[in-house]
Backbone:
């Protein structure tokens, strides 16, 4: 982070209009402490003041290559700058670092444009967000009729909503869901570290029936918005509307905390989560990633829609949950 302190970095992020939760300095400790990935937090300065920042995590994997990612394990976090010159300068610094480290590529997430030499990809992910109506009735009316009926049915069934301080219930549901999707789960200590790093800006909300957790979500809060980020549920949660009630409850909780926007996060185009968010009345926003290819000739394609991984995903789904949970930490550290 050059000669600037984390407090100065976070002050710059706090004041920048395009900043996100994923620009905060604490992310460098989360990935480094849990996985051992080196953090490279670059800054540009003018007259002793920060004019640009770029958080980069270095991921080295025998399976997936060697990369600098802004920000790994997050959906955003590209460069922030006060002017065009600083923006271009920090990208040049990133490229210089990438060549020094001999990475295959540099990836900047959710960045509409970059300078010459960078390659954009905007056909893989979409984001979903919209304002939250403060009044409960108005908020319900924002939800399309079919999904609104599911929420009301769930409310009538007596499902309970709680704010959790422990990751136990959440993690059990999250790990099960990840196994069912054919993807290795992040280790529980990752979520413990996230909670300790960001405190009240993270929150776990769980929907239960008769004391038995059915669905749970870990959300991030930043400025005027809430982002439900990691979720998990039992197979029966869908039938009783627990998942829909969960998101409705997050909206109401966000209003209590003074939030005005609901950021449903990104989903891969053409997947179930993508369709689910559209069914909730959210319109997709194409998300652009920028890549600087250094020692690689092709753009990375590390996602479940890649047919190259179809057999592995199918095999992972068939693993007993205990086996999947045991193997997940070995693989998920490379899926930044």
Residues:
């Amino acid at each position: 982070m050059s000669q600037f302190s984390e407090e100065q970095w976070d002050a710059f992020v706090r004041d920048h209009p395009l900043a996100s939760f994923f620009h905060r300095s604490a992310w460098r400790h989360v990935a480094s402490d849990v996985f051992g990935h080196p953090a490279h937090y670059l800054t540009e300065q003018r007259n002793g003041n920060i004019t640009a920042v770029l958080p980069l995590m270095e991921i080295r994997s025998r399976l997936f290559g060697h990369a600098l990612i802004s920000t790994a394990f997050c959906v955003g976090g590209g460069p922030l700058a006060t002017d065009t010159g600083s923006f271009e300068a920090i990208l040049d610094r990133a490229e210089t670092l990438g060549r020094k480290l001999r990475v295959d590529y540099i990836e900047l997430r959710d960045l509409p444009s970059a300078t010459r030499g960078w390659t954009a990809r905007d056909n893989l992910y979409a984001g979903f967000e919209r304002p939250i109506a403060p009044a409960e009735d108005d908020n319900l009316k924002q939800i399309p009729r079919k999904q609104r009926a599911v929420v009301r049915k769930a409310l009538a069934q007596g499902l309970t909503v709680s704010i959790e301080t422990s990751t136990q219930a959440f993690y059990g549901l999250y790990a099960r869901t990840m196994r069912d999707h054919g993807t290795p789960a992040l280790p529980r200590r990752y979520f413990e570290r996230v909670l300790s790093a960001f405190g009240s800006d993270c929150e776990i909300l769980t929907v239960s029936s008769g004391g038995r957790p059915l669905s749970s979500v870990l959300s991030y809060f930043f400025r005027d918005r809430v982002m439900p980020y990691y979720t998990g549920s039992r197979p029966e949660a869908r039938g009783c509307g627990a998942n829909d009630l969960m998101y409705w409850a997050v909206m109401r909780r966000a209003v209590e905390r003074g939030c005005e926007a609901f950021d449903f996060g990104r989903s891969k185009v053409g997947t179930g989560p993508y369709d689910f968010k559209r069914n909730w009345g959210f319109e997709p926003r194409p998300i652009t990633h920028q890549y600087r290819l250094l020692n690689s000739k092709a753009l990375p394609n590390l996602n479940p829609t890649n047919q190259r991984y179809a057999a592995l995903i199918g095999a992972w789904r068939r693993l007993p949950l205990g086996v999947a949970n045991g193997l997940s930490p070995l693989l998920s550290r490379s899926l930044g």
The chain has two domains: 6-117, 127-285. The chain has twelve helices and twelve strands. The radius of gyration is 20 Å. The first strand starts at residue 39 and ends at 46.
